[in-house]
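Deliverable D4.2, example record:
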Amino acid sequence: MNTSPKVIGIVGSYRKNGYIDTAVTEILAAAAHRGAQTQKIYLQDRPIEFCTNCRACMQEPGTHRGKCVLEDEMDSILKEIESADSLVLGAPVNCGNINALTRRFLERCVCYGYWPWEAPAPKPRNPVKHKKAVLVSSSAAPAWMGRWMTGALGALKNLANILGAKPVGVLWMGLVKPQEVELSDRTRKKARQLGQKLAA
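Output generated by the structure prediction step:
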C-alpha cells in the first residue's frame, strides 16, 4: 500500500516552460525528492467549457460536489485533484488578475458549493480543508506590486479554498520577461522549500 503523499500541480499559464510552468516543476521536483507522488495538469491541454451559470450543479444537497451538465474534461480533472493531498496552483497576472484560462477553471469549480434557488446565498458543501496548497504567480510588475495591487492572489486563495485546500505558501515572481525564462537562485530555493513543505 502506497502511503506517500500525492501532490498535483495545476498550470494555468498559456506558456509551457514559462515562469509559471518552470516554478511549478521546481516545486513538484522538490516534493518528489521527499518521496511524494507528483503530477502536473496543463489547463490549456484539457478541454474545459465556460460555466453558463445555470447552477444545476449547486441544487442537490450533500457533501460531494454537484454534477455539471456540460460534458468535457472538467470532471476528470476534479477527480484527479480530489485524489491529491496537496496542490500547487499556478497562474500569471493578466490585466490585473489571474488569466482567463484559470478564471474559466475557477468558475467551473462552483460545483463544490450548495445554492438551491430558494437560498439567499451559497455555502460550501464541505468546509473542512484537508489539503495543503502553494500558490504561484508572476507579473511584469515588481513582485510586491503584483502580489498586493492585483486581484490574482485573492483569486488563487479563493480557488484553493473551493478545492478544499489551505494555502501554506506563496511563490510570486516579478519583473518577468517571457523571452528570458530563468528562475533566480532565490526563487529556486524558495520553490524547493515549498515543495518539501507539501511533501511533509
